[in-house]
Amino acid sequence: MTKLTHISVLILLIFQLAAITCRAAAHANNHLEGDKNCPQNYAKIFVSNSGHNSSSQFKAGLPVRTLDYARTIAHRFAENTAGFCILLKGGETFLPSIAIHLNVSSTPQQAESEDFNRAAFLWDLDKPLILSNYGTKAYPIIRSQQKYFAKDNGSDTNYKTIKTQIAIAVTAPSKQPVVIENIYLLEWEISAIWIYRTTNITIRNLIINKTGTLYFPEERYLLKEPNHLIYAAGVIYPKNSSNIKIYNNSIRNSHNRNDSYGLTGDLHVFYLSKVSDVNIFNNNVKWTSGPPIKIRHNSKNITIESNEFMYASPSKISDKHVEQQGFIRIPCKNLDTSCPMNVRIQNNKFHHPWCWGANCNNQKALRYSGQYFDEYSSRCSDRCWLSSNDGMASYCQTNCRGIQLLNNDFVLEWKQL
Q1: Which residues of 196-212 are buried (b: 16+ CB within 10 A; e: fewer)?
Q2: Pair 244, 275: CB distance under 8 Å
Q3: Rounded to whole angstroms, how far apart are CA atoms 345 and 332?
């Protein structure tokens, strides 16, 4: 290769690097300037650790100090504005100042329990909301206070101050568009985002890290049920809701603690229950010990595409204590009346199970689990998932209620990072 050729290649590499840098900068600017994307007819509420909790701050366009006070301001001035932008200062960490009891049931064991359903921020106002960032391009962090409570083996001693287990909740009567973006949600025991009886939700450009009971080692048993371990169901958990978009999020380290075995237990990343019209795309999920996708209870019109799930499933051999296997779980007790329908899962990467312990080299994951697919269902077998390849599409459309898995890339064996 001549000297001139070397120079030409070097110039080409410089131009390519410059182009990549420009694209990354444009991507960052688009994602990390939430205040500039706020509609003119929305009221802006700035939140910063250097702010002060008073309505005069809001009226002057100055920051309030806490996220819950921003919610108070929104309720107080709701009649005077078309919507709200609640904007957290980039680069700052926000700890919950109160615990908002959601007063709804997530599971039968959790109904009306003081052990669950306490959020750092709740949007239950029927007004549009953009929850985003302002200032620097660094993500603002909403982080739990870590300690919720500790109760040793059912004793009545060693209580801690009750804190929050859910970062952000959106519930009825909210039904106007809500956008949650450009935020880092760190260390939440039950869920990062919980959605209940609402509609028109967009979740995008988030970093979510360390969700589940594994990261709360002192908190073991329920206060009212001393033999029942605390259990988290979904990192992002929509229930009885519709019209939801979840995209461009980075989700890491999602684990329940399994005290019976001293190991991590299954936790789902996207847990969809009684939902409709949901689109989940372009997310990057890594290191989760339960099926990252779970769809149940009459959910319909679901599209999950172009996501990456890496080390994000129980391993088949060593994790026999994990009740819910596979990258994809769609349980169904009655194939005719109560099962999900019109679900399309396509063009995703499902690579490697999560594995812990000393014997990971021979571990494998299942592709899926649930009554749609296991030996208890004669109508919807493994062949349905291969319908695009073996001519079974018509059969599966009729008998599997429109459940399709197309053009996904599965690597079921564990591999050392």
Answers
A1: bbbbbbbbbbbbbbbbb
A2: yes
A3: 17
| Residue 145, phi then psi, degrees to nearest 5 | -85, 10
Q: Any bridge partners for residue 171, and if so which?
A: 196
152 and 168 in contact (C-beta within 8 Å)? no
First to last CA, the chain: 36
CA 282 to chain CA centroid, nearest Å: 13
State the Cα–Cα distance between residues 388 and 390, nearest whole angstrom. 6
Tens-level pLDDT at each residue, the chain (417 residues):
444 444 443 443 344 334 433 433 333 444 456 778 899 999 999 999 999 999 888 888 899 999 999 999 999 999 989 999 999 999 999 988 887 877 665 443 343 344 457 899 999 999 999 999 999 878 999 998 755 444 444 444 444 444 678 999 999 999 999 999 999 999 998 899 999 999 999 999 999 999 998 888 766 655 555 556 677 889 999 999 999 999 999 999 998 876 555 455 678 999 999 999 999 999 999 999 889 999 988 899 999 999 999 998 876 544 445 567 788 888 776 655 677 888 899 999 999 988 766 677 778 887 777 655 443 343 444 444 433 444 444 444 445 567 778 889 999 888 877
> Interior CA angle at 400 toward 396 and 406, to 5°?
60
Task: Name the residue type at position 218.
Answer: E
pTM for the model: 0.82
Q: Is the N-terminal amide bond of 173 cis, ω within 30° of 0? A: yes
Q: Report DSSP state, residue 50.
A: T
- Would you tell me how many other CB atoms lie within 10 Å of the CB of residue 222? 21
Within 10 angstroms of residue 186's Cβ, the number of other Cβ atoms is 20
The dihedral through the CA atoms of 343, 326, 347, 380 has a sign that is: negative
Alpha carbons 196 and 273: distance in angstroms, whole number = 10
Element (H, E) at 72: helix 67-76
Sign of CA dihedral 237, 141, 263, 293: positive
Number of H helices, E strands in the chain: 6, 30
Residue 410 has φ and ψ, to the nearest 5°, of -105, 130
| CA atoms of 273 and 285, how far apart (whole Å) | 20
